[in-house]
């Protein structure tokens, strides 16, 4: 009886070899690639040639490099460590940013305080006038206290002039009294000058506050009348060096004598005094040279004090103010 199954065809020897090899590999386990074998590094050597290795060279560890996978695709770029200069710049940038943030917060706090302190711009201007008036009050008090001393010095100079006209010698006691009186007046004017110099920072402070307040409140620019009443032209004039100060002092004396009577002038070291009186008003002019030490600037101060003769109240006319305002321009031209 014929066999119902046909004999199997013979398997080629090469296929059987491959199959057997596969079985052996499955039995023994396929070796896995390590992480180091999977990662590649691309770097440039000293000759400028691009190199690909599984480990970066020691000389390149401190520099930037690119990490590649097993098929050469970039997986990570490692930058070089920062230099000392870059670290310094980074620290300086951090400091500047922190300082800028601090100033912003400080300005916010100042703005809030400014708006809480002054409800309107008029309140701010009123506060400014109050601060200036607080400085001016001791100045007026000192002027009042000086008037008897000025009268006394005037009489001493009249006595000296009478003796000189008579051809007589001036006693040492009289000369000492004149010198002592001039010293007292010079010290008093030094106090007035010191007080007057305090006005400058007050004006500057309130000018900045007013400008900031207007910006925050979106107010229009100030009118000239709003900042009137205490012109900076009355402030002392400073000079440096013998040449400049000598020139300024000569111009100051010329200006002083152009508005006073030379016959009534009293001159002492760094001090000129003069009077101009009529039936209603008494005006006293003074020009002072003041310097605390050789290292400090010289200040030239022109003072014009007007009082009503009956009431001794302060008086001032437009002409008086023009004389005060013209002093700075005449000296510093």
UniProtKB/TrEMBL annotation:
Residue stretches making up the DUF4124 domain: 24-84
Pfam families: DUF4124 (PF13511)
Protein name in the entry: Uncharacterized protein DUF4124
Species in which this protein is naturally found: Thiobaca trueperi
Classification lineage: Bacteria, Pseudomonadati, Pseudomonadota, Gammaproteobacteria, Chromatiales
